[in-house]
Amino acid sequence: MLMRTDPFREMDRIVQQLSGTSGTWSKPSVMPMDAYREGDQYVIAFDLPGVSTEAIDIDVERNMLTVKAERRPVAKADSVKVELAERPLGVFSRQIVLADTLDTERIEADYDAGVLTLRIPIAERAKPRKISIGTAAVAGPKQISS
Fold first, then answer.
1. Integer Cα distance of 92 and 68 in angstroms
2. What does the radius of gyration of the chain's CA atoms come to, in whole angstroms?
3. Cα 31 to Cα 54, 119, 135, 141, 144, distances in angstroms
4. Is the model's pTM score more than 0.85?
């Protein structure tokens, strides 16, 4: 049997159940994420522990990235009595507007140890580049006619 040491955690769980704050497809919960630039890539990492890859859906439409995931309850035998259930279940979703400087055609997704990592390359047109300066050929004086 598990010993509970935080009396308010159980109250939080009950409030969540009564208020319906667990995620549904019509009103998903937000998933935590980190976003940073690493060299010529933009990296976004989402925390999705306990979610199978089949339950993750990633879409890009124009410059809107949408990530949805669903964590379902584990099937339990009739003889199992749940003593404590704190892990959130339901649907999680996040929408991010991507800058035009990212190449959404080449997004890579990896899932390891409960973390979904998206790597989005910086578009070639957005990378800094050197502009060479040419010299104009001197053709002599020009006459302006009216």
1. 6
2. 26
3. 17, 18, 55, 68, 68
4. no
Burial of 127 per CB tally in 10 Å (0-12, 13-18, 19+): exposed
CA 77 to chain centroid: 34
Nearest to 100 by CA among 122, 129, 118: 122
CA 19 – CA 10 distance, rounded (Å): 14
121 neighbors 103 (Cβ within 8 angstroms): yes
C-alpha closest to that of 27 among 72, 90, 121, 83: 90
User: Tens of pLDDT along 97-133?
Assistant: 998 889 999 999 999 999 999 999 998 877 777 888 8
Residue 92 exposed, middle or buried by CB count within 10 Å (0-12, 13-18, 19+): buried
Rounded Cα distance, 95 and 74, in Å: 27
